[in-house]
Amino acid sequence: MEIDDDGIDDDGIDDAKQSHLNHALTPHQSLRPDQSLPSHQSLPSHQSLRPDQSLRSVKTQIEQLLREAGVDDREARAETELMIEHATSLRRAQQVLNEKTQLSEEQIHTLNSILEGRAQRIPLQYLLGETVFMGLKLKMQRGVFIPRSDTEILVEVAANKLKSLHESKQRNLKVLEIGVGSGAIIISLLKLLPFLDATAVDRLDDALALTKENAEALGVSHKLKLLKTAEWWELESKDFDAVLSNPPYIPVSDAPSLPPEVVLYEPPEALFGSDEDGLGFYRKLSDVYSSLISPEGGLIVVEVGDGQAEPVSKIFSQGGLQNIEVHKDLKRLPRVIACQASSAAARVH
After folding, report:
1. What's 238-259 look like in SS3?
2. Which residue from 205, 185, 76, 182 is spatially nearest to 129, judged by alpha carbons?
3. What pLDDT, on the 0 to 100 scale, is given for residue 344?
4. Is 133 labeled as catalytic in the residue annotation?
5. Is 247 among the catalytic positions?
6. 272 in active site
7. Fewer CB within 10 Å of terminal CB in the chain, N or C?
8. Of residues 133, 145, 281, 316, which has the active-site annotation?
9. DSSP labels for 278-291?
10. Which is the catalytic residue, given 123, 133, 147, 246?
11. Pick from 240, 257, 127, 133: nearest CA to 178
12. Cβ contact 136:188 at 8 Å
């Protein structure tokens, strides 16, 4: 796998990361003086778990601590199961079968360390050092955007579109991901579709380094080229069959309403889009896609935020993109836009 950096020799490794750089790439927008971060409760850190308890008792205590901190019931239950699995290697079904088992001091110590981090509202994925996306276990670290399950629909839509395109072109397809983050999207697609040759860009070192590590662990690094750049529209290679992105799209004005796990710990470059409405990335892509897409034409597949499908579809339509489709996530909310860029010859006309 190559990691290139603008102005650095092509074989040099300049790791970086993050699934957000894309915000049309103006410097990160900071909160205005009249804006404040969301208020939040902390976990009662003085309540440590004791080692002389059964697994069932420990699970009950952890769930209660999380609920008291404002974590909803469903999330508290899911987080508790993940913590227990991390400390004991017992999957959910095994936890049920081993409810009476007494946990060791080492296991209790591990759980208390995780709870101490959660008391500060640090995201669980950062504390565990891993997350699961599309059934793949990915390493995770602070400074890198945490992939959400909602984004799996982007992978599914892109995979179906790319399969059809491959059948039509009967050759390997070149795919670009803008803002790679942990590598969740592009690595999932490389695992699903062996006919892809991928390039992924980001401007943050942590992101590219983590993507490199995940790609190597999952056996797809030979199909992936990583580039460190903020000006993704100026890439030398401009003949991609598809461009994919889960860009930052949250308006900065929405920051006070975000959960503390998000706004206090995740990279702001991954969250907040440029322009007042957060849609700066989509405007930039609409303006420059013709310089990235193959002369034969190609696909664009992007994630959008709540209430953004209609305005983004309008931006793309005004930019000349065709066959615009909106796909809903598991919550039945519009989440992904897929569209086609016509061939160079058609664009001229």
Report:
1. CCECEEEECCCCECHHHHHHCC
2. 182
3. 63
4. no
5. yes
6. no
7. C
8. 145
9. S-HHHHHHHHHGGG
10. 246
11. 240
12. yes
Residues of the chain with pLDDT under 70: 1-47, 344-349
Who contacts 32 (Cβ-Cβ below 8 Å, separation ≥6)? 252
Long-range contacts of 161-164 (CB under 8 A, 24+ apart): 161/242, 161/299, 161/301, 161/338, 162/189, 162/193, 162/196, 162/241, 162/242, 162/299, 163/193
- Host H or E run for residue 225: strand 224-228
Per-residue burial over 145-183, b = 16 or more CB atoms within 10 Å of its CB, e = otherwise: bbbeeebbbbbbbbbebbeebbeeeeeebbbbbbbbbbb
Torsion on CA atoms 91, 212, 1, 222, rounded to nearest 10? 20
Residues 232-239: contacts with CB within 8 Å, 24+ apart?
232/21, 232/22, 232/25, 232/176, 232/178, 232/201, 233/284, 233/288, 233/291, 233/292, 235/176, 235/199, 235/201, 235/292, 237/174, 237/199, 238/291, 238/292, 238/293, 239/174, 239/293, 239/294, 239/295
pLDDT of residue 63: 94
pLDDT of residue 72: 85
Q: What is the largest CA-CA distance in the chain?
A: 76
Task: Name the amino acid, one letter, at 306.
Answer: D
Place of tokens 């420990």: 58
Instruction: From the candidates 247, 248, 267, 268, give the one annotated as an active-site residue.
Output: 247
Average pLDDT of the chain? 87
Between the CA of residue 41 and those of 49, 108, 262, what are the distances in Å? 20, 24, 14
pTM for this predicted structure: 0.84
How far apart CA 167 and CA 344 sit, in angstroms, is 21
Look at residue 348 in the predicted model and tell me its pLDDT: 54
Spatial distance between the Cα atoms of 192 and 184, rounded to a whole number of angstroms: 12
C-alpha to C-alpha distance for 21 and 288, rounded to whole angstroms:
16
Given a contact cutoff of 8 angstroms between Cβ atoms, the answer to whether 273 and 279 are in contact is yes
Rounded Cα–Cα distance for residues 77 and 100 (Å):
18
CA–CA gap between residue 108 and residue 105 (Å, rounded): 5
Count, residues in the chain:
349
- Is 15 in a helix, a strand, or coil? coil
- CB neighbours of 262 closer than 8 A, spacing ≥ 6? 123, 271
